[in-house]
Design goal:
Layout (H helix, E strand, L loop, with lengths): L12 H8 L4 E5 L5 E2 L14 E5 L3 E10 L12 E8 L4 E5 L15 E9 L2 E8 L5
Antiparallel strand pairs: 1-2, 1-3, 4-5, 4-7, 5-6, 7-8
Amino acid sequence: MPKPLPEPTPETQPFWDGAARGELRIQRCVTTGRYFFYPRLYSPFVIDGPVEWVTVSGDATLYSYNISHVPIPGFLDEVPYAIAVVQLAEGPRMMTNIVGIPNTPENLVLDMPLKVAFQQREGITVPVFTPAGVAA
């Protein structure tokens, strides 16, 4: 069974288009210069504030995680797997998966440096993260 796929919307399409090109793109408030994620039509920092899409470094640290031992459709062969929250070097946090290492508490150390990688899933490219210096 395939993994669940995201459904791009007009607000999120630039994020998915960037991922397809191997770029991690998030939004930035034009007025304050502050980055944010999840995609929105207006800045969360300024009422009706304009936003722009920017390509960010893809560097992050592990902020939090939960290791799932329950097999769900699409992840049956990957148990256990981590559902993680990473903090991007630019500031925002993003929910993702950690790949490239066994997902155990011994390997998933909070604040560990991570780097974005990309997985193809049935026609859509999904950003995931791997420990810095480890190929995905």
